């Protein structure tokens, strides 16, 4: 099966490389809970063993994608300007809109259902933490890094990419906390509509943020990585 997959042997490729070049791979990775954003530098073999997934099932799902005709423009084919616009419009603005609403909804659910055995106690605080991490991070990108990338000539940046990658790692840790507090966004039986809406919203936020981090870590940032060492 492995020799049917294009490029280097599948298991030796990094998760970030596969997610970047194979349309649909990110959905497969989300299904198997493979971290392709902050953990994008791991080989597929290492990532699969870390998560404890069935290697044959994972490989089959990815090879099936490789056999399909690609639809749409892959992020890797986007120009810097188009990709940066996409990140800001589809993810930065989405996070800014979603987080305040989810924090308010979480406070309501935690208060109304505080006696419930599966109440997501601490979820509103975790969302507040995520917002406090994201707001300055996105502001730095929009005010300094993205304009520098669009005007790039010599590759010197006021904010190193390594710093932003580290902040992505922190955001990934907070995402795992959201998963733990919500039992992987599993709505308890008989949960009210507010509780159901909360988990749907938080799950979408998590999915968006994973894709957001992936596009920056594995697509945008590597285009400028060689410039980091220049004087």
Helical amount among residues, as a percent range? 55-70%
Write down the domain tally.
2
> What sequence of helices (H) and strands (E) makes up the elements?
HHHHHHHH
Largest sheet: none
Radius of gyration (Å): 19 Å
Helix/strand/pairing category: mainly alpha
C-alpha end-to-end distance: 46 Å
Overall, the morphology is globular
Overall number of strands:
0
Strand-residue proportion:
under 5%
Question: Please, could you describe this protein's structure?
Answer:
The protein is mainly α and 231 residues long. The protein has 2 domains: 2-66, SP0561-like, CATH 1.10.3910; 78-229. It is built from 8 helices and no strands. α7 (161-181) runs antiparallel to α8 (193-220). Residues 1-7 and 68-73 have low confidence and may be disordered.
List keywords for this structure.
mainly alpha; 8 helices
Summarize the structure.
With about 230 residues, this protein is mostly helical.
Itemize the secondary structure elements and their pairings.
Layout: H1 15-21, H2 25-31, H3 44-51, H4 55-66, H5 80-112, H6 123-150, H7 161-181, H8 193-220
Helix pairs in contact: 1-8, 5-6, 5-8, 6-7, 7-8
């Amino acid at each position: 099966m492995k020799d049917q997959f294009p490029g280097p042997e599948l298991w030796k490729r990094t998760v970030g490389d596969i997610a970047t070049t194979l349309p649909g791979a990110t959905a497969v990775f989300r299904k198997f809970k493979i971290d392709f954003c902050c953990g994008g530098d791991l080989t597929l073999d290492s990532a699969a063993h870390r998560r404890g997934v069935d290697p044959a099932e994972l490989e089959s799902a990815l090879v099936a994608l490789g056999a399909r005709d690609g639809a749409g423009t892959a992020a890797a084919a986007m120009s810097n300007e188009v990709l940066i616009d996409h990140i800001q419009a589809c993810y930065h603005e989405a996070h800014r809109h979603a987080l305040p609403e989810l924090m308010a909804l979480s406070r309501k659910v935690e208060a109304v259902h505080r006696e419930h055995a599966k109440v997501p106690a601490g979820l509103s605080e975790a969302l507040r933490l995520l917002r406090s991490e994201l707001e300055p991070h996105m502001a730095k990108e929009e005010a300094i890094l993205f304009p520098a990338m669009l005007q790039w000539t010599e590759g010197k940046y006021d904010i190193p990419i390594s710093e932003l990658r580290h902040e992505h790692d922190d955001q990934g840790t907070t995402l795992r906390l959201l998963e733990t507090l919500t039992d992987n966004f599993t709505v308890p039986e008989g949960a009210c509509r507010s509780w159901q809406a909360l988990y749907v919203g938080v799950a979408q936020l998590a999915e968006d943020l994973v894709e957001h981090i992936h596009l920056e870590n594995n697509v945008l940032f590597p285009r400028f990585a060689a410039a980091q060492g220049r004087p």
